[in-house]
């Protein structure tokens, strides 16, 4: 009898958690800025960016970024036995003879506005690693994010960049919901694929290996980003605590998305496709001269051989953001995922607080449970 009662309690909690998650995919959005607030934000941000681009520090930083990105692509091409330069940019038409200083330069024009959403599936406390693929299949993607402090024009060092996105068929790990793949697959709560945290180096650069994201109904293809600082690296290589200076989303050139969607397993995704032009969050984030779209270079003659993506972003390190997490990953302290290979399936329970609906349902079940006991 005790086992039956326990089962009902667990079922009640699971039902409420599932109920909350199914409604969660209406993206969380912070208070909308007034017209005057938005105008002030845009003017201040653009003025700061203009100032930064004129500094010697900024120019030298960009020159080093050109070299770093060119070397990264060359190394990746060697690894897949591609010797012929055949690169593409999201904003330029290039040829095999295009100079690397043109190909890999990018101005720091991306500041995600304060009300851009972190999305409903943000999970705190993920593994610190540089490869978050685990066993997910898809187009290999190598990410280079450079973070600049808009107030000082200098690179932001030791910012723990938290990245997450869906797998090739549009499913996030760590969440069970009717809008997130198979809602009957409770084991997905324990999954950690395509989520990872990595610190920026002395150049303000964070690099991550992943796969190109898939899509899900109602949103264009995108990647989430949270910039943390002042937290603690735990013994199991997860990140805890600290403050958040930046919350936003990155996007991809529509032509690149369309090409990837033709490749398996992306092509098996039956969810409706939303174009960039029809995505409200994309339009909000890319307005007023800001550019949250990754630049990219193909690593081979076809997209399935991999893509290198990069972006430079300016953040306000005096800002204090408060993203809402659907849960927190606790880890086991002994079986942390590899920070190099990213192939481990080890996972530990995620901890979530009971919602009001969960408590109400437990109260409703109380007489039955007491009778059984």
Q: How would you describe the overall organization of this protein?
A:
The strands form 4 sheets. This protein has a 4-stranded mixed beta sheet with strand order 5-2-11-10, with no helix packed on it. It has a 4-stranded antiparallel beta sheet with strand order 4-3-6-9, with no helix packed on it. It is 27% helix and 18% strand. It is of the alpha+beta class and 373 residues long. The protein is globular and about 55 Å long. A hairpin with an 8-residue loop joins strand 10 and strand 11 (307-315). The relative contact order is 0.20. Pfam families: Dioxygenase_C. Residues 119-220 form the Intradiol ring-cleavage dioxygenases domain. Residues 326-347 are annotated as: Disordered. Residues 326-346 have a biased composition (Polar residues). Keywords: Signal.
What is shown here, in short?
With about 375 residues, the protein is an alpha+beta fold. Helix content is about 25%, strand content about 20%.
- Strand order, main sheet: write it out: 5-2-11-10
- Report the total helices: 7
Radius of gyration: 22 Å
Strand fraction band?
15-25%
Order of helices and strands: HHHHEEEEEEEEEHHEEEEH
User: Uncertain runs with pLDDT below 50, 5 residues or more?
Assistant: 1-41, 82-98, 100-104, 333-373
Portion in helices = 25-40%
Helix/strand/pairing category: alpha+beta
Tell me about the largest β-sheet: 4 strands, mixed
Number of strands: 13
